[in-house]
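Dear Dr. K.,

Following up on our conversation at the group meeting, I've run the structure prediction for Peptidoglycan DD-metalloendopeptidase family protein from Pleionea litopenaei. I'm pasting the input sequence below exactly as I used it, so you can double-check it against your construct before we proceed with anything downstream. Let me know if the numbering doesn't match what you have in your notebook.
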Amino acid sequence: MNRRSYAVRLFRPLTYALVTAGLFACGHHVPAPVVNLSYDYNPPSNQQVADENLPEFHLVEEGDTLFSIAWRYGVDYRELADLNRIDNDYRIYPGQKLNFALQQSVVEQASFDESKLKRAVFQALNLPIQESKIADSNNSKSSKVRAHSQQKSNKPVESVAQVKKSSKSTRQAPKSSGNAHYSGVKIARWHWPVKGSIIDGFSDGLYGNKGVDISGRPGEAVRAAAQGRVVYRGNALKGYGNLIIVKHNDDFLSAYAHNSKIHVKENEIVKAGQVIADIGNSGADQSKLHFEIRYRGKPVDPIKYLPKL
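The predicted structure tokens came back this morning:
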């Protein structure tokens, strides 16, 4: 039921009551009552997964994963998945549009307070107010409106990839487009990915260093800081060079950048201390490892988690 038909059905008996009251008042030379029929309406608003600096959407390119996109924009991958109704296999496809803002249903935002409307009419007509019936009626109808809205909004939206699949497209989605769900385990202890000195430490701010830069010799082994699953390997993120992202559990991710060679595949389970890459200078002006830890999508200072040397 749309808002107009709902309003018409609501006002029909009230209009009859007001007309009757007006005729009665005219017959007795008494001014007809003035009834405030205004109702509260909240305009629709936008829900966002993070701050207002985010783009409206991201168009998935070949090699992207949900994790690499969330990493690029500094958002929680779970919120991004929920916002775009992506299953917990987190599979996405080239050409798919991932939204960062979701327009709420107008039906959910509009609050027609029927109880206030009825109460105003009863008071103007000097009729006894039966609060329980007014409340029950209002709750029943408002719940129907919400249920109707939720029933529509919960229906999955067909993605670009699904449209292509239904049209029997021969284009294959790259392996890097999806990652099986992995809850991981609690991290008992973090490990240094390389043994070296800190070149550049962590700093807050929009243009700050999101992790730490650690010196190292070209070809030196880069090791996983904790057990986890490789959810991205590639060089699509500007400024990171050859990058590995490891998901440790639902809260923590870690990243290893500027590698010269990568030794792991996406979806591979790695152990703490396992060699995953070699130090290099891809996307950098010198051989080093850029190492990041993110907690629920937000960069945190790795030094606070790594053991003291």
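Two things stood out to me. The chain has two domains: 1-181, 198-304. The longest strand covers residues 252-262.

Best regards,
J.T.
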